[in-house]
Amino acid sequence: MNSIPPIAIEFASLNFPTIVPMIIAIVGALVILIIDLINKNLDKSLYVMIAVLFLIVDLGVIIGFTSDVRGFFDLLLVDGIAILSQGIIVLASLFFVLTAMGKLRFQEYRYPEYFALYLFMVAGFQFMVSSDSLILILVGLETASMALYTIIAMHNRTNALEAAIKYFTMGALSTAFFAFGSLIFYAVTGTVELGKVSEVLVASNYENYPLVLLGVIFMLGALGFKLSLVPYHTWVADVYEGSTAALAGFLSIVPKMAAFVVALRFFEIFIASGDPFVEVILYVTVVLTITIPNIIALLQNDISRMLAYSSISNAGFAMTAILIGSTQATQALFLYWLMFLITNLGAFSMLWINRSKDSSSFSSDHAMEKYSGLIKKEPFSALMMGLFLFSLAGIPPFALFWGKLYLIGSAVNGGYLILALIMVLNSAIAGYYYLKPIVFMFLKDANEEVEVKFLANSTPVIKAVIGLCAVLVVFSILLIEPLLEIISYYVQISGY
What we know:
It is built from 19 helices and two strands. By secondary structure, it is mainly α. A hairpin with a 4-residue loop joins β1 and β2 (76-77). The longest helix has 32 residues, at 158-189.
């Protein structure tokens, strides 16, 4: 009987540099766990610094990446889009992990496992964006999601556990959708690599079209959960309210960046070939996602819930880039998300430093009436908070205005005039509810009967992060030109 010859793999053919950034994040997580095994009584600031150190190294490796784009049995695809999005993911994670240096002692930061899970989660998101193989994307998605559910549940509050369970059940459904969608595409094309799926579909002139369309709907459902697109957005507000403000800010940026890249790689197959059905499905989803959360946000009385709905609407805004599908739109997507990162990081960090352990006198941690008359008690805080809200509202010359302008411009250039009009109208609606907390802070008198502690959780580190965000938001006009050059370079080398 003939024995099967062993498979010989040369180490060079694996193209090891493609996987190094993820390995750095994973090694960092393992280092934290090992240090904890050796000595149990170390302060959380050590773990924060270790996480920061590994994330900086990770970022350096991403920026310096010069190897071939394919690696590891062709599973990894580190093209310009992957480098750009990994950079944004690691940079955002770097700043959000610094917010753990708050003054108050919160339950989850006592555990070094929190920071280890955080790094595992970053590695998962990096895997998601650096592959066009549906299997590896699913593995990355699961790695990141499992860590994320646990991190949310670690916050020792009843609504945190409820939020984690809600997120977990929705996430499990999303994973099932993704697996089922991948299965359909494998059945139709015989491959799970998106590039080859595209080739096979075009070559066969989309035979089995109803089946392909079913696959698209499943994938849209799976990505819709992660991107919080309507109607898959129902978990968002509860999860943001149950998490700490710092983690809610993280949720609004990093997981979505990863999901946008997957959506970009996936829908590009259909948008590039001008598939009318997929375009209509995306168009309707995008319009609903921009509009419905905006209307719900008008009714909110809690700032973190309001920001939750605003981030759903912002995800819809960014999703328009994938629908338009031009190079300019893809560049606009990354620019918009970078501007959204600096604004949201600032806004949620402001909520975070004003978090106090005692919030029983209000309906929620960040109820708007809690901030009444803030300008008299903490004028600097009120000005900072107002600045970030103005930027979110898209008022010039603050950061998010440029992101919106560039996106709407790419919609007009792509011939989507009605879509551009809907985007402009929704920006006007959004301006109204961002002004609501500003009215409370600047125009209303503080409630004298209730003692409110502001800046109870502030430390120099978090103040430095907020200060940096504020400077970037105000002087963002100076960033746009250099950022666009970097973004367009990376987008064009990956052929989008």
